[in-house]
Write a structure and sequence with these properties.
heterodimer; A: 236 residues; 28% strand; globular; B: ABC transporter involved in vitamin B12 uptake, BtuC; 74% helix; 0% strand
């Protein structure tokens, strides 16, 4: 079943157009990645889905058009956005950050259980549960951002460059946990990355974005073996 | 020594009122980065509403509670109807709106209730404690303010909505992404600030007399308290308000000619803090990377 369908998506920052008719789809339970260089429109694509930028075109989530909704209503539908820069609530504690992730949910017991579940994925957050989130390292803040997204019990996770600014070992650790999350939570993910290598390893489907256009799409394997992609984005 | 203690305790009482105003100002400042110049006049108007209700009901506590509830609702409506439309406007437009609100409330109060001073009875009994150091009203003011501030603190610290309000003020984009309706949190903040201001107004009215300009001085002391404590620290604003009350009382007594210079003192304090410690005593210096 198609969880997300995007057709002819155009996005605008005031007068400046950032996307020029982007089409893509995401199957429920799968991971799709959008690759591209700086300024290609990857972040804008995610911001379009979360209704943080003016758009034209169609965005359907679970068959429902969401372009008329506000950002908070989109979140309430079960779309958890891990934003560029991680969106940490820096003055709140780690645990308060996780509680905020569950803001739309009512059942306190479920929320408490899910906090334990997040700590099971990220034991380091457990150690720092009472600490102000702004004092965490970049990698820990990325873990917290993913944990916060999990607290929504999301049907779809939007992940904006989880590898950004992190040491290779930490990136590897975070991607291993993301793979576990996919297997255990059956979560669907739309993953945006500059680090094409690691994203193609995780994702089922991939789209290549250049200056607001989709220039290539297909199974991750296909893109990985494409000569051009290899030279330009994988670097070998 | 008795005089010193009397001055200090009376200072704490009036400082409690400044603390309420300072807290109201800081709550809105944290969410919007602006001082609400109309905070004092809104509190004055609330106090008049309490007075009008008292003429009808004859019960000061009942009138007080209804006035605070009405102020809460009015604060929400003011945010939704008047402040929200200019939230993305340049800073000058917003300041003009705040000053406009100030004048509207001041003139409305004068129109409805005239400029003659009225007396609002104290919430607390006349002869509760037998002490030469502090009046029953002042003691009641101090304890009641501490109670209100404690409740406010617990609300922000331990409730889901309180947490969401803090998140919305600190990081609105991120708050929206977890499903918080940031606009309504702002409105709720205005409602709470307005209600806390109303508490301050009713507490101070028996001391300063009720008339449309009664809060202009109090607001200035409240600003001084907020700045002294730190504009991004609610706890600091409360401490700052109390300190300003005590310092003002000392200055009036011990500085030659000080009895006439209360407001001057507040302004000196504001300028001094801005010059030498802009973040306030308990505030954080915010460093922005560019």
């Amino acid at each position: 079943m198609k969880l997300l369908e995007v057709k002819g998506l155009k996005a605008f920052y005031r007068q400046t157009q950032a996307l020029y008719g982007v089409d893509f789809e995401l199957e429920e339970g799968s991971i799709t990645t959008i690759l591209g260089a700086n300024g290609a429109g990857k972040t804008t694509t995610l911001r379009s889905i979360s209704r943080m930028v003016r758009t034209e075109g169609e965005i359907k989530f679970d068959g429902q058009d969401i372009t008329g909704l506000s950002t908070e209503k989109v979140a309430a539908l079960g779309i958890a956005h891990v934003p560029e820069g991680r969106g940490t609530f820096v003055r709140q504690s780690v645990e308060e950050n996780l509680h905020l992730g569950a803001y739309t949910r009512k059942n306190k017991n479920d929320v408490a259980n899910d906090i334990d579940r997040v700590y099971a994925y990220f034991p380091r957050l457990m150690e720092r549960r009472q600490q102000q989130a702004g004092t965490l390292s970049g990698g820990e803040q990325q873990m917290l951002a993913i944990g916060r997204a999990l607290m929504l019990r999301p049907r779809l996770m939007l992940l904006d460059e989880p590898s950004f600014g992190l040491a290779p070992l930490i990136v590897q650790e975070i991607y291993e946990i993301m793979a576990r999350i996919r297997d255990q939570e059956k979560a669907s993910m739309l993953l945006v990355e500059q680090n094409a290598n690691i994203a193609l390893n995780l994702a089922d489907q991939a789209y290549l974005l250049e200056t607001g256009h989709v220039v290539m799409s297909g199974e991750s394997e296909v893109l990985r073996n494409d000569e051009n992609v290899r030279k330009v984005y994988l670097g070998y | 020594m008795d005089l010193f203690l009397q001055l200090t305790l009376a200072g704490l009482a009036i400082g409690s009122v400044y603390a309420c105003v300072a807290l109201a100002v800081v709550m809105i400042y944290q969410a919007t980065d602006h001082f609400n110049f109309a905070q004092g006049e809104m509190a004055m108007f609330s106090t008049f509403v309490a007075w009008a209700l008292y003429q009808v009901t004859g019960s000061i506590w009942l009138s007080f509670l209804i006035a605070v509830a009405l102020s809460f609702i009015a604060g929400i409506i003011i945010e939704r109807v008047i402040v929200k439309p200019v939230e993305n406007a340049p800073i000058f437009n917003q300041i003009i709106v705040f000053i406009g609100l100030l004048m509207i409330f001041n003139n409305l109060a004068g129109w409805f209730w005239e400029h003659t001073t009225k007396t609002l009875p104290s919430l607390f009994p006349k002869h509760g404690i037998d002490s030469t150091l502090i009046s029953t009203h002042n003691l009641g003011v101090i304890l009641f303010t501490l109670l209100i501030l404690g409740v406010t603190f617990c609300f922000f610290k331990f409730t889901k909505v309180g947490l969401a309000m803090r998140a919305a003020a600190a990081n609105p984009d991120s708050a929206r992404l977890v499903g918080v309706s940031v606009g309504w949190m702002l409105a709720l903040g205005w409602g709470l600030a307005s209600a806390i201001g109303a508490v301050g107004g009713v507490l101070v009215a028996p001391i300063v007399f009720l008339e449309p300009n009664m809060m202009s001085g109090v607001l200035l002391y409240g600003f001084a308290g907020a700045l002294l404590g730190g504009v991004n620290s609610p706890g600091g604003a409360v401490a700052g308000g109390l300190m300003v009350g005590v310092l003002e009382n000392w200055a009036r007594q011990y500085v030659p000619g000080g009895s006439e210079l209360g407001l001057t003192f507040a302004l000196i304090l504001i300028v001094g803090v801005l010059m030498f410690k802009p973040a306030g005593l308990f505030g954080r210096v915010i460093i922005k990377r560019v």
